[in-house]
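> example.struct
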């Protein structure tokens, strides 16, 4: 049983880390499209535009703020294990830096059709990333953690909190950019399109592949083969 648990945990970690990386690739594509970043990246990118902080570091900073927000909201109900979100924030931040670096090898598109194609790639990668990252149920990103904290304290359903949270991030980013940069900065048509389509694409992917992913994460048949091989060597 211990061997089965370890084997399935390895698969969950692989899916989880791959999901995080795929999400940052999606963020990189959205930046390259120059049509507006996804809502979850709007504030980190705004920090980058205004303060000149590299986006991976800005992402880590924003996640730290979200973790502090959870502590303020939950107070004594905040669990120490939730600080592990800080580790995930650092990983996610460095993935963001690496993904943006990869995008430098692509030419900057001027054609709107190509820019919308990059935006579509961004939406697909973010949706696939969420699809892989959520089911392992390991450690939530700080944004999700903050939304869960608000939902827990207010009793408002998580989906409604997410809508308000995403909308608030876009509004804060847009207003800040308007006042400081005299332009929308991180917010654009791509931001709205991403907000609408990521959930739609995610639902489509889940219908097609959720059973296969669940089977991969929890399938014991592969473990039985490993056990048989191990028993053969020990006998």
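> example.seq
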């Amino acid at each position: 049983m211990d061997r089965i648990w370890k084997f399935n945990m390895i698969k969950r970690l692989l899916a989880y880390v791959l999901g995080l990386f795929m999400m940052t690739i999606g963020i990189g594509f959205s930046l390259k499209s120059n049509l507006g970043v996804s809502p979850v990246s709007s504030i980190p990118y705004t920090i980058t535009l205004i303060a000149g902080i590299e986006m991976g570091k800005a992402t880590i900073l924003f996640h730290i703020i979200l973790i502090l927000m959870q502590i303020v909201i939950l107070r004594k109900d905040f669990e120490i294990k939730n600080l592990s979100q800080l580790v995930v924030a650092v990983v996610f931040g460095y993935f963001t830096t690496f993904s943006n670096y990869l995008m430098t090898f692509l030419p900057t598109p001027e054609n709107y059709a190509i820019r919308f194609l990059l935006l579509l790639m961004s939406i697909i990668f973010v949706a696939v990333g969420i699809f892989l990252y959520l089911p392992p149920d390991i450690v939530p990103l700080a944004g999700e953690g903050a939304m869960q904290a608000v939902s827990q304290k207010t009793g408002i359903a998580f989906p409604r909190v997410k809508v308000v949270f995403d909308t608030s991030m876009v509004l804060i980013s847009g207003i800040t950019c308007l006042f400081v940069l005299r332009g929308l900065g991180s917010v654009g048509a791509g931001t709205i399109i991403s907000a609408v389509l990521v959930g739609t694409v995610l639902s489509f992917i889940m219908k097609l592949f959720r059973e296969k992913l669940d089977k991969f994460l929890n399938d014991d048949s592969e473990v039985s083969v490993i056990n048989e091989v191990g028993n053969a060597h020990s006998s």
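> remarks
Residues 55 and 123 are 19 Å apart (CA to CA).
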